[in-house]
Structure formats: structure tokens, C-alpha cells
Amino acid sequence: GDSVTQMEGPVTLSEEAFLTINCTYTATGYPSLFWYVQYPGEGLQLLLKATKADDKGSNKGFEATYRKETTSFHLEKGSVQVSDSAVYFCALSHGSSNTGKLIFGQGTTLQVKP
Amino acid sequence: EPEVTQTPSHQVTQMGQEVILRCVPISNHLYFYWYRQILGQKVEFLVSFYNNEISEKSEIFDDQFSVERPDGSNFTLKIRSTKLEDSAMYFCASSPGFQRAEAFFGQGTRLTVV
Question: Among partner residues B50, B95, B107, which is closest to A43 by beta-carbon distance?
């Protein structure tokens, strides 16, 4: 079945460091791919998405490129801030599903230190 | 900005008791979902709901679970006879469509079964 695998956390970085959180997926066909973020005490918020191969999603300085050849959707940011500390979830929604359900990775905790 | 709201934020219940988790989705959305996250594990899909009926459910969503949209605004998840292993964060989400559309999540209800 469809699945999403993220790199193990926690990831601890200093402010202004470069961030990469790896995400790979297994799915048939052409899923849509998402990154959601959960700040402490809050719900899941969509950070960015990509709906077809080679699309790049971007938001708030974060970006991720849909790579079908490597079945990956790695999240990157050039210079992290303390306020980026959160849990990041990679997810897919299968295009053949008629319900739009999301399949999530296990989440990666990011801690940014000043 | 419209948002999905969930109540209560935290519920403690005794094993074997019934609980109802409540959600108010975004008003013009058509698709509604429940997900859960057991502490330290992935966010898991439970059920999707469209046009006043279940459109898809996971194997987790057994006979002890039910969903309802009783009045056109609320969307509820009922657990008939809670078990210790039902302790988790439960997220409600809604979406305007199912193909490549963003799902908006509530802040979650933390259910603790004792």
C-alpha cells in the first residue's frame, strides 16, 4: 500500500543554518505531496504542496520539489529561525482515491537554537 | 480566516465509557475527516465523510466508532466503549474537494482513557 517515510528526528540546528528534512514515498500512479507543520499546542497546518512531478512547492522560505524518479519530496530552507521549531509531517494524497485521505509520515521534530 | 474548531481540547474518560468528540468544519467545505495520532506514532487516517455518508474508512475504524453530521455544521466522532489503546490525539479536518485540495485541520482533542 501507499506509504511515506521521513528522516528520524529530532533535528537540532542553530539559527540561520540550512535545513533538509528527507521524505520518500511509495505509491502507484501520481499522488499529490504535502508538507504539514505542527507548532507547539496547535493543529496541523499546510506548509506547501506539489501536485505533479517536477513541481516545486514553496512557502515561508521553505521549498520542496516533487521528484518522481527518486520518489522524494525533501523539505529545505536556507536559513532557519527559532520560530521554525515545530514538528514537520510529509504526506501524500493518492490521485486515484475519491476521498482525498492523507497518508502521513511519522513526523520530524525540528528544534532551532538561538 | 476560517478554521476548523474542535472541542474539547482534552478529555479524560474511564475505560468502557462512551465519548463524543466534536468538530465544526469550515462552512463551505464538503469533505470531512477524522485522523488520530497515538503518542510517538504516525498520524493515521480513520474515516472520511461526504454527502452525509462515510466514503472511506480504515481498518482502525471498527464497530466501536461512528461519525455523524447531526445538524449541518457539527461533525462528531463517537467511540462507544473506550479502550486504553484509544488514548490518542484526534484531529478533525475538512476540505473543499478531494482531488489535490488542501485539508484544513483542527487543533485536536487529546483523549486519555484511564
Answer: B107
User: Are the C-beta atoms of residues A104 and B42 closer than 8 Å to each other?
Assistant: yes
CA dist., res. B46 & res. A30, Å (int): 23
What is the full DSSP assignment across B64-97? Answer: TEEEE--SSS-EEEEESS--GGG-EEEEEEEES-
**For position A95, what pLDDT does the model report?**
61
Taking CA–CA distances from B104, the nearest residue in chain A reads: A45
Nearest Cβ partner for A95 among B44, B91, B99: B99
Angle at B61 (CA atoms; ends B93, A104), nearest 5 degrees? 50
**CB-nearest partner of B31 from A41, A89, A100:** A100
pLDDT of residue A41: 80
Of B42, B51, B62, B64, the closest CA to residue B98 belongs to B51
* Closest residue in chain B to residue A51, using alpha carbons only: B100
pLDDT profile of chain A (114 residues), mean per 10: 90 97 91 93 90 95 96 97 96 76 94 96
List the 2-61 stretch of A: residues with Cβ below 8 A of B. 32, 34, 36, 41-46, 49, 51
Q: Are A53 and A7 in contact (CB under 8 A)?
A: no
Per-residue pLDDT band for B100 (boundaries 50, 70, 90) equals low
Phi, psi of B5 (to 5 degrees): -115, 140
- Judging contacts by C-beta atoms under 8 Å, the chain B residues touching residue A34 are 102
